[in-house]
Amino acid sequence: MTTPFLHINGIRKTYGPVVASDHVELAISEGEFMTFLGPSGSGKSTTLYILAGFQDPTAGDIKLRGQSILSTPSHKRNIGMVFQRYTLFPHLSVGENVAFPLRVRRMGQSEIAEKVKRALALVRLDGFEDRMPAKMSGGQQQRVALARALVYDPPVLLMDEPLSALDKKLREEIQVEIRRIHQETGVTILYVTHDQEEALRLSDRIAIFNKGKIEQVGTGPELYANPATHFVADFIGDSAFLSGELAGVQGNRAALRFANGQKVVDIPLHGAGRQGQAADLMLRPERVELSAEAGAEGASLPVTVQDITFLGNCTAVAARTDWGDAMTVRLNFGHPLAGRLARGDRLHVRWSPEAAHAFVRG
Amino acid sequence: MFSAITAGRRGSGLGFALPAVLLLFAFFVVPVAALLTRSVTEPELGLQNYAVLVGSSTYARIFFNTFFVSGVVTLITVLIAFPVAWALAIMPSRWASIIFAIILLSMWTNLLARTYAWMVLLQQTGLINRSLMALGLIDAPLQLTNNLVGVTIGMVYIMLPFMILPLMGVIKKIDPAILQAAALCGATKAQALRRVLIPLAGPGIASGALMVFVMSLGYYVTPSLLGGTANMMLAELIAQQVQSLVNWGMGGAAAFLLLVVTLGLYAVQLRFFDAKEAR
């Protein structure tokens, strides 16, 4: 195997008895947009801070182009970073903020002026050189921070939830900008977020963090179509989980039995499982249908309608299985059933084969 | 209607301030005016007191001593207080509050007691001289009292809290992430200090330095106990003129000059920082 561009090699970080990150292993190629996605406290920021040199790992190594960077202090790592909080130097103008990394590198005056101009053009803030940071919006400040982090052409750019302080509309606007900047510069980006939509929108690949460990790494479609664990399945997408137990396992297909004895069969099973273990049936919402007729034996479940909510482009139907699990099915606008449903109606939930997954619980 | 409310509020605010304004007028403005009057009327009408103050080399020496010592004290205080304030700001809060309490406690201890303590430490056979000699660093005791060295040491000690407090205020407000950003941008510790930390702490340094400098200009107890009569400072001159020589005219003139210098410095600082804010 060739040497990866950036290799996070078995990083472990503990604070006393608390394990913040546990054997994080990841190879990132040059120019890749890699996102660390996970809930807060899952170890994604810790891993990023170790890359930045703000913290030392308890064990493991980080190699850039095959060379360990752990013994290099932050200011010599030549890594760019955009922080969650606004970290522009408040006493310096926008131009001087962007020039700062070049000034501490003692670059020539004309070269600095040219690079600053180019970096500000990249984030579409041409002509803002003399503005003070306090006079700018949050979105503009983060764009200046991006220009400051890119002006010295770092091989790796770290972004630690840079958009979390912004409102939704502005966030989406800057996400588009970040994508464009990534394409234009070809810089390798490591991006931390807890927002699955942001991760899917931006990344080439996503590493899902949970309790200090990486649960799965893959492209958005890979993770969505083939989640390795219950956690990944739950974290990406908006799926229904119905709880039962494994009634039979054949290779990687399983049959599940629910509390009232109803059974479903031929469901892809993720991870190892034995008969009798508690397991969940996961149904992706877009491949699930409500129908008046039952499907083939073991490929549909009867439900009772609890509530109907019209949402414009779709109607959300809250339904309950016969053993009491709740799930929501969306009917697109114009669906033949949409106008004719009432609470208490008995219907059948059916799914296409790719939409159902079985996960052992635990 | 709205403006009527605010106007009413402003009026009542003035009402609340009235006792304080009267108090200041009666006990500050009037005595200063009286002193100013005496400085141009005693022993006879005219500016002869000021002419003597400005013209004589003895008094020039006293003015020089005062400004020189105050300047050195301010400089040393800034240099010591900055790292202390920085350490206090980043220290775990439990430790910071203990050290903070020690600093405050020293401020609340009687000034005379603290100055006498320094006399004991600094004298020829004092702890400092004996320790240095025991360590073999010096052969003969250093002259640390009855000169400006002693005055400077004692005053730095007394002024330190007045510098640490405002500095801590500004340093605590600096987001540590800004310094992390500076480090990732490639700034060494020294560059981050010079280009980020000190400029951001600037207002705190300026207000602390002004306070220490102005307080030092008018300080009496420490210079008179540690400096001796040969190294007089302005406050001692005023005391001598008024108490020993009963020369109110001369004392008043010196006091008034001190007040003018102090107000001038304050005006410079206000102007400097207002201009910065407005930008």
Automatic annotation (TrEMBL), chain A:
Gene3D superfamilies: 2.40.50.100, P-loop containing nucleotide triphosphate hydrolases. Residues 6-236 form the ABC transporter domain. One of its GO terms (biological process) is quaternary ammonium group transport. Keywords: ATP-binding, Nucleotide-binding, Transport. One of its GO terms (molecular function) is transmembrane transporter activity. GO terms for cellular component: ATP-binding cassette (ABC) transporter complex. The keyword ATP-binding applies. This is Putative spermidine/putrescine transport system ATP-binding protein. It comes from Gemmobacter aquatilis.
From TrEMBL, chain B:
The keyword Transmembrane applies. It is a multi-pass membrane protein. The chain crosses the membrane at residues 12-36, 62-88, 95-113, 148-171, 196-221, 253-273. GO terms for biological process: transmembrane transport. Keywords: Cell membrane, Membrane, Transmembrane, Transmembrane helix, Transport. GO terms for cellular component: plasma membrane. InterPro entries: MetI-like, MetI-like_sf. Gene3D superfamilies: MetI-like. Residues 63-269 form the ABC transmembrane type-1 domain. Pfam families: BPD_transp_1. PANTHER family: ABC TRANSPORTER PERMEASE PROTEIN, INNER MEMBRANE ABC TRANSPORTER PERMEASE PROTEIN YDCU-RELATED-RELATED. This is Putative spermidine/putrescine transport system permease protein. It comes from Gemmobacter aquatilis.
